[in-house]
Amino acid sequence: MIEAKNLTKRYGEKTAVADLSFSVEPGKVTGFLGPNGAGKSTTMRLLLGLDRPDSGDATIGGRHYQDLPQPLRVAGALLEAKAVHTGRSAYNHLLCLAQTQGLGTKRVDEVLELVGLKEVARKRAGGFSLGMGQRLGIAAALLGDPSVLILDEPVNGLDPEGILWIRTLMKDLAAEGRTVLVSSHLMNEMAVTAEHLIVIGRGRLVADCSMDEFIERSGALSVLVRSPDAEALKEDIARAGGTVTQSGAGELTVENLETGRIGEIAAAGGHVLHEVVPRRGSLEEAFMELTRDSVEYGATGGTGATNGKRGGTA
Predict the structure, then answer these.
(1) pLDDT tens sequence across 175-214
(2) Domain boundaries in the chain?
(3) What are the tens digits of pLDDT across the range 69-120?
(4) First to last CA, the chain
(5) Distance (Å, rounded) from C-alpha 267 to C-alpha 143?
(6) Burial 183-201, CB ≥16 within 10 A → b, else e
(7) What is the CA radius of gyration of the chain?
(8) What does the pLDDT look like over 260-292, one tens digit per residue?
């Protein structure tokens, strides 16, 4: 299990993480979400002992990462895929890491094949594309066959086949009972990968719950209604307190009313219904709603201007 207890980290006057507590359990993929500047990367660095907290504690399996005698056998991490000696081949990069953990060449060959880099194993990593570099970073994270994986933006630079591959891999590893914590800005991808979410904003915890609960908490629920009497039905629904938009010919989207109430309104008005379907909001909609007050770096309008530059605590 990964545990963060009252973590606080400041850089000068900037508080990157503020009294943050959560735990990541094995057996499921846990998504780690937050707007730019929320403190996700800083938190991951604290978990891996790359930064020291000003207060609080971070442990993996009950121990500090730096106290693990062979850390890659316990926790594999991908924080920066391009953090590789550019003059080394993919094989030699992994071999150097393997030798520090008492791992043999057989394991190097296994992970190279697993991530699809077997054919380019002897090529210099400096010539790799972003997607290939990402695969090499994932190979390094998997090298020690760890029980814990901490992955920061693992699908960055991957093509659709690669995205499907890493999604399936993370799910399979979690199904084996491993602990998988993954951050991403791609909400659509997180929606089909993660079962549990930890969401932070401005360094503080916003949510720690299942995917379904997170979306339900946002209230992002609407009802699709199809009727040949859409125009008249729209007026009746509005009078009953529903928020209605006409999304197509004979098609309405209704908010603030449940399906049963919509059916009662239609029956009372003599309106024919062809379809009434509740639609759950998307993860993206829920994320935007629940982190609205936590956005630190956002657009100011339609001209492409931004409210400040991206900081170093994403």
Answers:
(1) 999 999 999 988 989 999 999 999 999 999 999 999 988 9
(2) 2-74+146-216, 221-280
(3) 999 999 999 998 778 888 999 999 999 999 999 999 999 999 999 999 999 9
(4) 23
(5) 63
(6) bbbebebbbebbebbbbbb
(7) 24
(8) 999 999 999 999 999 998 877 788 888 888 888
CB–CB of 206/39 below 8 Å?
no
CATH of domain 2-74+146-216: 3.40.50.300
The span from the CA of 206 to the CA of 204, in Å, is: 6
Q: Do domains 2-74+146-216 and 221-280 have the same CATH topology?
A: no
Contact (CB, 8 A) for 54 and 94: no
Residue 238 phi/psi, 5-degree rounding, is -65, -40
Cβ partners under 8 Å of residue 277, min gap 6: 223, 224, 259
The pair of three-digit structure tokens given for residue 76, joined into one six-digit string = 């594999």
Contact 38, 152 (CB under 8 A): no
Q: Which residues contact 93 (CB under 8 A, 6 or more apart)?
A: 84, 85, 125, 136, 140
| Cα 311 to Cα 314: distance, rounded to the nearest angstrom | 7
Between residues 303 and 158, which one has the greater pLDDT? 158
H or E, element range at 105: helix 105-114
In degrees and rounded to multiples of 5, residue 254 shows phi and psi of -115, 135
Provide the pLDDT for residue 9: 97
Which two structure tokens, joined as six digits, stand for 216?
Answer: 């339900």
Helix (H) or strand (E) holding 149: strand 148-152
- Residue 275 CA to residue 206 CA, distance in Å, equals 36
- Spell out the residues 6+ positions from residue 226 whose beta carbon is closer than 8 angstroms to its own: 250, 251, 252, 273, 274, 275, 276
Q: What global pTM score does this model have?
A: 0.79
The domain made up of 221-280 has a fold known as Alpha-Beta Plaits (3.30.70)
Task: State the residue for tokens 């170093």.
Answer: 312
CA–CA gap between residue 156 and residue 78 (Å, rounded) = 11
